[in-house]
Amino acid sequence: MKYLALIYSAPGSNPDYGTPEFAASMEEWNKVNQTYIDAGVMVSGDALQDVATATSIRIRDGKTETMDGPFAETKEQLGGYYLLDCADLDEAIKYAAMIPAARYGTVEVRPIMDLG
C-alpha cells in the first residue's frame, strides 16, 4: 500500500542554504533517501519551494479565483513529501519517523486512496 508522508516545519527551523549546518542536514536527508531506496519503499519524494512561491486556487460561483501563498495560515508549512510503498501503516510510520524534520516539525502519514 502506498502512503504519503507530508513534511511540515515552521519557517526558519531549517538551516540556511550554504551553511555548514545546511550541508550536515543534507547528509541526513541523503541517508534517509538511501535507506528508503535500499528497503525498496521509495516511490518518490521532493522538497517544495518556499510557500511564498505558492498560488492557491478556488472556484466560487463558477469563477476561478487565485491567491498568492498557501490557502491556510498555519505555523508549520508543507515543505516536501515522500511517497512510500509499505506493507502497512506500522511500516509507513517506522520510515516516516526517520525523516529529519520529524524532530523539529511534523510528518503526517496518510494512505493513498486506491480509486482503480
TrEMBL record:
Residues annotated as transmembrane: none
Family: Belongs to the YciI family.
One Pfam family this sequence matches: YCII
InterPro entries from the UniProt entry: Dimeric_a/b-barrel, YCII
Domain YCII-related: from-to ranges: 1-114
Protein name: YCII-related domain-containing protein
Highest taxon, organism lineage: Bacteria
Protein source organism: Neptunicoccus cionae
